[in-house]
Each structure stands twice: as C-alpha cells, then as structure tokens.
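Protocol check, entry for the methods section draft. Step 1: assemble the input record (protein sequence plus ligand SMILES). Step 2: submit for complex structure prediction. Step 3: store the structure tokens unaltered in the notebook. Ligand used here: NAP. Step 1 record:
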Amino acid sequence: MKAVVFEAYGDSSVLKFTDAPMPPIKDDQVLVKVYAATVNPIDWRIRSGGLAKFVECDFPVIPGREVAGVIEQVGADVSNFKVGDPVFGFLQQLEMKWGSYAEFVPADAYKLAHKPAELSYEQATALPVAIHTAQQALFTHGGLEAGQTVLIHAAAGVVGSMAVQLAKQAGATVIATASPGNHDFVLGLGADRVIDYHQQDFGEQLKSEYPDGVAVILAPFAGKSLQGSEPLVTSSTKIILLSPVANPEDMKIGPVESQVMICQADGAALESLSDQFASGELKTEIARVFNLEQAAEAQDLSATERVAGKIVIKVN
Ligand SMILES: NC(=O)c1ccc[n+]([C@@H]2O[C@H](COP(=O)([O-])OP(=O)(O)OC[C@H]3O[C@@H](n4cnc5c(N)ncnc54)[C@H](OP(=O)(O)O)[C@@H]3O)[C@@H](O)[C@H]2O)c1
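Step 3, stored output:
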C-alpha cells in the first residue's frame, strides 16, 4: 500500500511518501480503508521526538491518529462492524507503528463509530479528537453544569471551538478567548462573550462582569494567556490544560493547581452524537485539505499553531 513513513525522529523532511507492507490486525481490531485522515499537533510532536517519553515509536512509523474510511477486514472478535461499513474514529495508539497517513490502517473496534451518511469522509475525520477532548475536559474533568460559567481559551482552534458548542448546549455561559480576527467566528458558535487574550489585563476587565469567577477554565495552551485568567479563578475553579507545561510554575493559577488531561478514544461517545453530527449542530471547521503526498507540508502548517480549523489529509 502507499503510505507516509518516517524511520527516525527529525523535521518534516523525514516524512517519505512510499510503499509500505499491509498492516496486520488483531482479533479485536478492524482494517480500515482510509478515505481521510487528519493532522493533529501531536503528529509533528511525535515525529520530532519531543514526546518520546510518552509515545513510543516502533520504526518505521506511519503517522496519523484520526481516520474516516470503510471497513476492509474484520477481526474474529468484532461483532459491531462488517466489511463495507463507513466508519470514523480516534485511533489513540500508545505505540506508533501503523497510523492513518496510509491507504489502510488497523483500528481497535471500540474506538470507531459508524459514519453518518450526511457527513463527507473529510468532515467525519475532523471530529473525533475535538469531540473527545472537549467533552472529557468540560464534563469528565471539569464537571461543568448548566448555569455555570466556563472560560474557553483558544476558542477559534479545533478543540476550543468544539468546547464552545458543547458548553452552550449544556446550558453554560461561555467566555471565549481568541485573536480579534476570529471573534465573529467564535460568537457565531454561540459564545456569550469573546475577548482578546493578547490584552494583558483581560482577566481584570472581566472580573467586574463575573465577580464570582468561573467554574471551569479550558486551556489548550499554557503560558501567558492562561496566567491572564487569574482574576477569574476561585478556590473551586477547575483548570484543565491540554498540553504539557515546560515551566512547573505555569501549572498554578492563583490558588489552583491546573491538571493536564489526555483525551481517550471512545467510539460509543461518537455513536451517541451521530444525529447532531448529521444535522450540523456539532461541527468542526476544515482549514485545508492536503493529498497524502503533501503530508510534510500539512504538518508544517499545523506546527505554526496559527491555523483555525482542522487540517485534513485526503487518501483514497
Ligand atoms: N491533551 C489532549 O488530549 C489534547 C487533545 C487535543 C489537542 N491537544 C492540544 O491542544 C492544543 C490545541 O489543539 P487544537 O487542535 O485545538 O489546536 P489548533 O486548532 O491548532 O489551535 C490553534 C488556535 O489556538 C490559538 N492559540 C495558539 N497559540 C495560543 C496560545 N499560546 N494561547 C492561546 N491561544 C493560542 C490560536 O487562536 P487565535 O488565532 O484566535 O489566536 C489558533 O488559531 C494543541 O497544543 C494540542 O496538541 C491536546
């Protein structure tokens, strides 16, 4: 099969479009014929070697952790999918070997869901990581409830924009942060208030409007924007971070130690939101679609961390 492969850590030039053997599947797995994959920031962090302590690489490695495609083969223990089913999901490999930047990828069956017919493969592959991360951060870790206020940073990003949609659906008041050029987009998602996190004193400005602070802060990125939130933090605020912090002092905001969350694959959660995906009630913007041969360019674009929307790789 055709695939993008890297044989050693390095910059995007280590990614080669080449021939690779067909991946094997285990009894609880399916083989998916890939129609569309995505680029997640973790893809280029793994490729660079920056996450070697957390995600092992069994070289040669095919990157890619999200997929939408059609079931090609079913393992002996799999009963909920059959050959020919259109599916999508987050692969969440603990060791990287067989990823979705390829014509075929093995997937644990419990991580997949049936793709709603209304969605294209590009739209479907863009959803799983955003949904799992936003859902688990807001509700599983943050305990967000109707009537509470949540501060969502990087709200124009893939995870942030999904979090705004889910928090509004849950009946929360949403304060979002984004660069000024993205304010209309974020308000269009339903945010009650959007603010430029580049302003040093944005937390102070908001404090007079929200004197009781916020129940949950979702912060995809640590650093300056997160520290500016301090005036809105009370001793009961839950702060959920999505990226490891270089400086341990950045973990503490006012009286609260933030927690770093890793999203978990969950096909059943995707299946349960099927109607909302089909109707477009929950959606992820697609920023760019690349061909498989352009994977290096696609990862370099993601590494700018300035792209609002998902980067998709079209395969078959
Ligand atoms: N732990 C997990 O399980 C998990 C899961 C998914 C993602 N993540 C991580 O979460 C982060 C966001 O992922 P994503 O896919 O949503 O990213 P994304 O779509 O690439 O987010 C890009 C947006 O984030 C904003 N941004 C960039 N740097 C920022 C900063 N320092 N402070 C505040 N906002 C900033 C920018 O918004 P403006 O243009 O409006 O400034 C940019 O448009 C990544 O680091 C990713 O690795 C972790």
